[in-house]
Structures are given as C-alpha cells and as structure tokens.
Amino acid sequence: MGTALGYWAMTVVSRRVPATTASLGVLATPVLGIGLSAVILAEGLDPQLVISALTILLGIALGAKGGG
C-alpha cells in the first residue's frame, strides 16, 4: 500500500511540474532522511555523511541554476 501511494504521488507531481523540477526534488530525499534520522532518532552525523549530504545539495543547486 505504501509503495502504491508513493508511485501515485510521484505521478501527480510529475504531471504538475517540469521533469527537471521533479527529479531535483527526488534528489533531496536522502538529505531529508539523514536530517530526520538525526533529529527524530538522535542518530549521529559523521563527517562523511555530512559531506555526502552537502554534495547532494550542491548538485541540486547546480541543477536548479542550470549548470552542469
């Protein structure tokens, strides 16, 4: 049921926004997961995890700007 809901939500988003915007939004999923696990579950953030999240955010910023 959860998978079907996710696919449905992504289909709705893909119909309403450009493909580039939708794909950049999906790229933020791991960063959101890292942040929520640190806040809600009190999991630690090691330097590699922080650097990885920042690299993803940099990629999103470059994609949104049109570079790359």
Explain how this protein is built:
- The protein is mainly alpha-helical and 68 residues long.
- The chain has 4 helices and no strands.
- The chain has helices at 2-16, 19-27, 29-40, 47-65.
- Helix 2 packs antiparallel against helix 4 (47-65).
- The longest helix has 19 residues, at 47-65.
- The radius of gyration is 14 Å and the shape is flat.
In short:
The protein has helices spanning 2-16, 19-27, 29-40, 47-65. It is mainly α and 68 residues long.
What key phrases describe this protein's structure?
68 residues, mainly alpha
Low-confidence stretches: none
Radius of gyration based on Cα positions: 14 Å
Give the overall pLDDT as a whole number: 90
Strand content: under 5%
List the helices and strands and how they pair.
Layout: H1 2-16, H2 19-27, H3 29-40, H4 47-65
Helix pairs in contact: 2-4
